[in-house]
Amino acid sequence: SRLEDQASALATEARNYQASSQEIPHTLWAKLILEWLSKMDCIKRGWVLVGFPVSREQAIVLQEMGVAPDHVVILDAPDTVLIERNLGKRIDPFTEEVYHITFNWPEDPDKQGILREPEGLTEKATVTRLLEYRRESHGVQSSYKKICKVINADQPTVDVLSQVMTFVHSRHRSVAPYAPHILLYGPPGCGKNLQAAMIAEKYKIVDVSSGHLLKQATAAQTKIGEAVQSYVEQGQPVPDSMVLRCLEERLSKLDCITRGWVLHGFPRDIEQATLLEEKGFLMNRVFFMDVPDDAIIERLTLRTTDPVTGERYHSVYKPAPNSEVQARCQQNPKDSLEHVENELKVYHDHVTELGKFYQAVIHINADQDPHTVFEFIESSVLNPPVKRKAS
């Protein structure tokens, strides 16, 4: 129902998949969810996400998008109970209200007469779905093992709710020994977004992406968001002052103050770094993610996207499955060789002076497996924080 109510390009694309009886790609679902969670009501009030992810692959896609829940609740019950509950469902075709022949049967005979079985509801279909769930559920649980709780749903609803609320209102003990203020800096394509999401998930700190904040401001149609949109539409860089305003507002929120944060996308030069420090936002961890230029060029310029499915491919690491898909794949203009080389030049123009500015920089070889990179970052995060030398 949420999908039907949306008017965005992503929602339209998803509805087109549904209309043609095709499965919506994981990446498109994740983008849709990120779009929904970027709305001001979700930002201010929080959110409850149901139905996604249902597999480890989907959980990883969400994490790569920077979506990290505070709590994950898995409701479980014996298979026989779940099958009985599912087969007993009945639906009011006019209101779409759900009833059950055993647990929630209406007293009104007229209401009883109009209730219908959900389409495709058979014992075989239920068992098939249940087997698929059992295969995938462990992957979801392992993806969120530090913040996950399995609750027995084979008990009165009020008791289930009580246990869920007790868990949701609990605060996870942070495994970080201090409030981290982490900066990830590196060339385009070095893996900053993924590492930031993994750090935020592990240490329950806030993932702060300057690009994501600008998108949130635009989606919320705030004054600064409208100003940002005008620059984006004209293909011009957003002024530092606007980016800094968004960052200052986000980093001043209670969750950032109490839990800490990992920042990426800003600063990109010494002027931006100076502005950030003048606002009082000091780093106690600065990681420079080093990747050779030829590796960056290989990572980015060989990426393509299938416009039909939304799936992303890489001619070396994840080739298209066949020549037909390969022929229709398209390259993002930002992944063109010319654009990537320009971005690398900007990076090299500023990396040395930024290193001198932050002094106690931790260099990481980011040209290796993401989990190996994360393990190195993790070992450095657990050490006592560094102190800046007096200028």
TrEMBL record:
The protein depicted here goes by the name: Adenylate kinase 8
Keyword tRNA-binding in annotation: no
Q: Which CDD domains match?
A: ADK (cd01428)
Question: Which superkingdom heads the taxonomic lineage of this protein's source?
Answer: Eukaryota
Which keywords are on file for this protein? Kinase, Nucleotide-binding, Transferase
Q: Is Protein transport among the key words of this record?
A: no
According to its UniProt record, which protein family does this protein belong to?
Belongs to the adenylate kinase family.
- Gene3D superfamilies per UniProt: P-loop containing nucleotide triphosphate hydrolases
Which Gene Ontology molecular-function terms are recorded?
A: AMP kinase activity; ATP binding
